[in-house]
Amino acid sequence: MNRLQKSYFLQHDVVALARDLLGKYVFTMKEGQLAGGIIVETEAYRAVNDRASHAYGGRRTARNEMMYHEGGIAYVFLCYGIHNMLNFVTNEAEVPDAVLIRGIAPTHGMELMQLRTGKPVLPPNAGDGPGRVGKLLGITKADNGRSLTGDTIWLEDRGLVIPDNQVLVTSRIGVDYAGDDAKLPYRFVVHDFKLTTL
């Protein structure tokens, strides 16, 4: 296995990093139980000039403070009062770049993730959407600020390369309030991903 090191998250181009994260594995270890999957959808948020970012205009609050830390930590925020959204903070300190993990293909801890969904079986689309990602991985607000290179949350590069012809590049979802910035091609989705192709 090849764990991603802190230096990986310190890259200055958050959009390129969001694309590069496709095909990487993300894991969590909670109460001795492992869960994980392949990242198949991401969205980039670029610092203070991106109207869709929580840090737009240099906004700095208790909620988004982790975005201003050095890359390599998790930024977790609650959406609609129920969904814990997992973001990876990137770049150097005081540059609030982040990547929202919008989708994973579950690969490890299937029974655990099925229990977390509360459903009798784990559906094929179980990891579609950032709210579902948080649930499958057991992400909570306690993970806000947690290292992405520790023993609770970590990423691995297992050599899975997603070719460009399998990647949809689109505008982001649910950020219409951001005006023209809502149309930026900062969302990356692996098209028709199947574990049988591994």
Account of the 3D structure:
This protein is α+β, with helices and mostly antiparallel strands. The protein has one domain: Methylpurine-DNA glycosylase (MPG) (3-methyladenine DNA Glycosylase, Chain A), CATH 3.10.300.10. It has three helices and eight strands. The longest helix has 8 residues. It is globular, with a radius of gyration of 16 Å. The mean pLDDT is 94.
Task: Provide the descriptors you would attach to this structure in a database record.
198 residues; alpha+beta; 3-methyladenine DNA Glycosylase, Chain A; 3 helices; globular
Fraction of helical residues:
10-25%
N to C succession of SSEs: HEEEEEHHEEE
Number of helices: 3
Summarize the main sheet.
8 strands, antiparallel
- Which architecture name does CATH use? Roll
Tell me the quaternary state: single chain
- Work out the count of structural domains: 1
- Round the mean pLDDT to the nearest integer and report it: 94
Q: Could you name the CATH class?
A: Alpha Beta
- Given as residue ranges, the uncertain stretches (5+ residues, pLDDT < 50) are none
Question: What's the count of strands?
Answer: 8
Shape: globular
The CATH homologous superfamily name equals: Methylpurine-DNA glycosylase (MPG)
Describe how the helices and strands are arranged.
Layout: H1 14-20, E1 25-30, E2 33-45, E3 74-79, E4 83-90, E5 97-108, H2 110-117, H3 130-137, E6 153-156, E7 167-170, E8 187-190
Antiparallel strand pairs: 1-2, 1-6, 2-5, 2-8, 3-4, 4-5, 7-8
Helix pairs in contact: 2-3
